Amino acid sequence: MDVQTAAQFVLAAKAIGAGLATIALFGVGIGIGNVFSTLISTVGRNPSVQQRVFPFAIIGFALVEAVGLFALLIAFLILFT
Fold it and tell me: For a tag site, which of 37, 48, 49, 69 has the least CB within 10 Å?
């Protein structure tokens, strides 16, 4: 294997690795939808608990979004290092 072929192989492996790292973003989308759908159904059933439930929904959103940002960070690290 010559140097040019090896370099192309490394670039292809980086692209595949970055693509696999972004699979976590599908789970993030599902998680955010789940958090807010549960919030809407909870407030719809009992509107008086909105003030108590909303901060937990925002914390859940932030934690799920952090997983997405970590996955994106890993994908960029794989691509550009």
Answer: 48
